[in-house]
Amino acid sequence: MSSGGAEDDIPQGERKTVTDFCYLLDKSKQLFNGLRDLPQYGQKQWQSYFGRTFDVYTKLWKFQQQHRQVLDNRYGLKRWQIGEIASKIGQLYYHYYLRTSETSYLNEAFSFYSAIRQRSYYSQVNKEDRPELVVKKLRYYARFIVVCLLLNKMDVVKDLVKELSDEIEDYTHRFNTEDQVEWNLVLQEVAAFIEADPVMVLNDDNTIVITSNRLAETGAPLLEQGMIVGQLSLADALIIGNCNNQVKFSELTVDMFRMLQALEREPMNLASQMNKPGMQESADKPTRRENPHKYLLYKPTFSQLYTFLAASFKELPANSVLLIYLSATGVFPTGRADSEGPYDFGGVLTNSNRDIINGDAIHKRNQSHKEMHCLHPGDLYPFTRKPLFIIVDSSNSVAYKNFTNLFGQPLVCLLSPTAYPKALQDQSQRGSLFTLFLNNPLMAFLFVSGLSSMRRGLWEKCQEYLRKINRDIAQLLTHSRSIDQAFLQFFGDEFLRLLLTRFIFCSATMRMHKIFRETRNYPESYPQLPRDETVENPHLQKHILELASILDVRNVFLESTIDDY
């Protein structure tokens, strides 16, 4: 305790206040540290522990608010300590978002992180000769930036990056530390992440418009009367990023970031829904979960990937779909195989530090053996016992075209082009064009049309026209007489419906584009789509040309692809 008077002179009530605060502080730290020991996979084991942790932090936060003067005088409570409590609550909300995929918790994390900055809780840290306290401040900035990126608050991100840059400069100037390079790398990563979008949308005053790519109310094309589709719903998704050299921040590559947003609805205000996570009475729970649950796996090993996959598979509810998104470097087969089985076409890379040399080259073993640090199509066969929706964005995506549906469950694979025209290849570090089409099809369309900026009014006009195109694609799919039923079984889910319509728009656009002339430049799917009824449908081609005309880029596209085949 501080020297606010001899200990014996402290009134009993004030002494109890300090004791209770110390108890809550110790208990909160103990519970928070225990979160690290919870399994990262499985959706049930962690909820009660999170609830208890939230309970203690809520009490601690209110307690320090109610007894601030006593704690200032008798305990010597510093403002950075209040900031630490607020930061931990922000982290709890963020991790609750990661566990539940409910975007509303991001807003709660943002409000706590924001309060720390507005109230300057960490402002006095720089006056203390303790580098570990400054590191706490720097980590707070990094976490705040991640939350702002996920909420598309890019203006705040830019302010935070500038403040973080100043803080790092001050930190490295005052303390001769070994982590200077690491912190400068953090700055470089976030700067590259912000610049990843290839097209800017501008207001009339040339300020940048921030566009959100989460599912809005008008996002997915509505199911019209007479459309016969399945009743499956997307419940779980594994989003895997293992591309060498792709821009990333905080274990989130650009591709992973774009895909996770494509699988979320716009956040709602949490205050109107519930008080705190894990504390809801069952009667008050929403009738359906707003977003599919997600696991974000950055450069996982094969063992990690398979463990999370098995956990998702085990907990998948009835009439639900598991989505696997793979954004990863391709692994190609070595030598000629005697047969053509599910392990003979290569696949995508899983992480092994021993086998990755200079970021790209893969350790070569005996040519008769298969690459062990690779997710082969055959590795996914056991999980086709339940409805499975696979997206592969890779230079060897076509390996997954060689699937066999062994168990008769709905199964669809959407596969990226394996190569892009040379004019576009230098963009790969900033995220894949295929994933951009699935996340923000208009931005991808502008990019392949050679446009790098656009006025807001024209952007909104084009978005409206794109919604019409999506509605028409939905009709093409549901009215097709030769389409594989697997596509229709997934079409009842809003997220999967939007991904399928965007995939067809992407494929049709690339087939009509003058510089996409090789077969490997086009997306493919398993099962195959009937081309004349979908990706080469004349009605859809007319729409794409009309969109190109609105943008004055019709010269980039062929008038028709029918004669090319």
From TrEMBL:
**Domain of life, per the record?**
Eukaryota
- Give a GO biological-process term: DNA-templated transcription
InterPro entries attached here?
SCAI, SCAI_metazoan/Viridiplantae
Question: Which molecular-function annotation in GO is an example for this chain?
Answer: transcription corepressor activity
The protein in question is named: Protein SCAI isoform X4
What organism is the protein native to?
Answer: Mustela putorius furo (European domestic ferret)
- Taxonomic path: Eukaryota, Metazoa, Chordata, Craniata, Vertebrata
